[in-house]
Write a sequence for this structure.
């Protein structure tokens, strides 16, 4: 668990995974566009790290974005149209959070295995989710999370924070597709929000796949 000395503590945290800073009503989602293996945010209230390496060295940025299409546009596209893709594991650290009960909301949009004309819909992304070192959801397949086609998918979890730190880990255990190509099979996340209070009824939004930002977390050329 990552910890730091805090001068100020917070009641919430919003991260726009793979995207620029954006306001969603009263919530400000932090920029998350670094490509280093570890990054502490400029505000020093969150960080991320990744581990692993891609299996197919011929993959490059154009390969990862060339099959994406735009289906629907909406005001939420700045959040749901970005994502961070990791080779094996991706961990977010919430820092300097006040002691208390929180709701962790994870936003997903399966933007890679989604185009029927090139058979990418047959791809299957499967990963596990850990919070505070405990597995909370095993064998997650974004396509199987309740929601309509071209809608973002969300999962919510309750968590109690005592020491100011929160760890959220996404881990690919080698399940799901092992092809098409292997570089695409790791965990993928569009946004993370951490708020105080009780679970609320989720409101879903359509997403557009026009120009998503894919962050390559390791060198993919030899």
């Amino acid at each position: 668990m990552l910890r730091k000395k805090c001068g100020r503590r917070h009641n919430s945290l919003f991260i726009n995974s793979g995207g620029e800073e954006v306001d969603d009503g009263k919530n400000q989602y932090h920029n998350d566009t670094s490509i280093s293996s570890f990054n502490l945010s400029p505000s020093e209230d969150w960080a991320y790290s990744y581990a692993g390496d891609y299996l197919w060295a011929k993959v490059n940025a154009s390969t990862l974005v060339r099959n994406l299409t735009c289906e629907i546009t909406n005001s939420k596209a700045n959040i749901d149209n970005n994502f961070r893709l990791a080779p094996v594991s991706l961990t977010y650290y919430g820092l300097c959070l006040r002691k208390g009960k929180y709701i962790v909301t994870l936003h997903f949009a399966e933007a890679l295995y989604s185009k029927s004309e090139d058979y990418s819909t047959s791809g299957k992304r499967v990963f596990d989710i850990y919070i505070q070192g405990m597995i909370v959801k095993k064998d997650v397949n974004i396509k199987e999370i309740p929601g309509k086609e071209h809608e973002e998918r969300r999962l919510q979890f309750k968590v109690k924070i005592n020491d100011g730190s929160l760890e959220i880990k996404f881990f690919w255990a080698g399940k799901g597709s092992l092809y098409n190509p292997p570089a695409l099979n790791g965990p993928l996340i569009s946004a993370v929000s951490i708020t105080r209070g009780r679970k609320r009824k989720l409101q879903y939004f359509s997403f557009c796949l026009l120009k998503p930002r894919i962050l390559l977390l390791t060198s993919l050329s030899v």
User: Anything to note?
Assistant: Residues 60-75, 202-222 have pLDDT under 50 and may be disordered. The helical segments are 61-65, 77-80.
